[in-house]
Amino acid sequence: MAEKFQFQVIEDRKFLGISSNSVKDLLIKWGMYDQMKVQAFTYDKHFQEYQKNEFVMDFLTDPNVQANLQVLSSSDSWVHLGILKAAKVEVDPVPCTIVNMDFFQKLFRQGLVRESGMIFKCFDEYVEGFTVSDELRKMHLMDDSDHFDVFSQDEKMEFIFRIFKHLCFGGDVCQFEDNVNPYLDTSKAIYKDLVSVYKDANTKELKTRSRVFKISALDSDGEMIYPAGNKHEQSFAYLVLDPLKRNLFVWYHQWRGIAW
């Protein structure tokens, strides 16, 4: 059997965008700040994508990870992961190719937001635990929205779009924005903190280097035990790997409202 991947926590890693006062204030406003955590680790050997399931299982069962990876307990306090009785992991590769915010210009061209960034409103509806009161959230949640296909399915899979979508949904107690720009600015800050880029030597274009995976762990009964005990769009854990530096970032959030 191949040797397991081993991990060490990077305790002094700074995430300058996420920790800025402006982003912190917005995450508090959206009800995400106290339920969200970003942490950094290193791993000890070259990773290839076919190893993704073994890599994630090794990560979640590594003693250094279990002693340092933080999760939100049922009493709303941060605790270390501890021993996780995971029988299976689910690891979904997430495309991560976007290098600038022009990706979101469609929002302004397709009648979702005005040139000023103000989001077009709609009649209130309640969908999957979320209040839908504007065209932006309607696009995310309702396939009968006139704007559901503004972004293609491939574009919706992109990591930057997923960040944007999570911020638009917010936490279970959320003050939503009337203007899209705070969502875009915060998406950019999180993306820049987590994703590594490089300049292609031939084309001189910027490209992403990071590999991103959305992960979960299940017990022997098939019940989710990480990142949360119940499945919800806003309970998530993403691993963002820099294959050159062998750094691994964990972006974690847990929904504290009623489960789906």
Protein architecture, described:
This protein is an alpha+beta fold. It contains eight helices and 13 strands. It has helices spanning 21-29, 52-61, 63-66, 106-109, 135-141, 153-157, 159-169, 181-194, and strands spanning 7-9, 36-43, 70-72, 78-80, 88-94, 121-127, 130-134, 197-199, 206-208, 211-218, 224-226, 236-242, 247-253. The strands form four sheets. Strands 1, 2, 5, 10, 11, 12 and 13 form a seven-stranded antiparallel sheet that branches. Strand 6 (121-127) and strand 7 form a beta hairpin. Helix 7 (159-169) crosses helix 8. The longest helix is centred in the C-terminal third of the chain and has 14 residues, at 181-194. It is globular and about 55 Å long. The N and C termini lie far apart (39 Å).
Major beta-sheet overview: 7 strands, antiparallel
* Run of helices and strands: EHEHHEEEHEEHHHHEEEEEE
Radius of gyration: 19 Å
Structural class designation: alpha+beta
Q: How many beta-strand elements? A: 13
- Quaternary organization: single chain
Binned, the helix content reads 10-25%
Shape: globular
Portion in strands: 25-35%
Cα end-to-end separation: 39 Å
Q: List low-pLDDT spans.
A: none
Could you give a short description of this structure?
The protein has 260 residues and is of the alpha+beta class. The chain has eight helices and 13 strands.
